[in-house]
Amino acid sequence: MNVVEVMSCGKTTDEVIARLFERLPTYGLLPFHVRKESVGFIFNRIWAAIRPGIPAEPRQLLRRYIEQGRLGIKSGKGFYSDYEEKAPTR
Description:
Strand order of the largest sheet: 1-2
Number of helices: 3
Structural class: alpha+beta
Oligomer: single chain
Number of domains: 2
Helix content: 25-40%
Largest sheet: 2 strands, parallel
């Protein structure tokens, strides 16, 4: 199942959300409307709540990366590599 979560930044119009729900299925995607910010994706949170034997290693690795400040481009270090510092473009 190709699930995509659609969430507003707080300024997105209802028309944009409605159009996404019309178009996404044409690309083989099943949209879910996330109505408020939460920790983690809906699908993963539900899956974790109903599967008692999920492996702990991926969560441990991600926690370690967060503790090390490896937050992606915004921190200059990510999951796969370090990012070069680039001057902002305008």
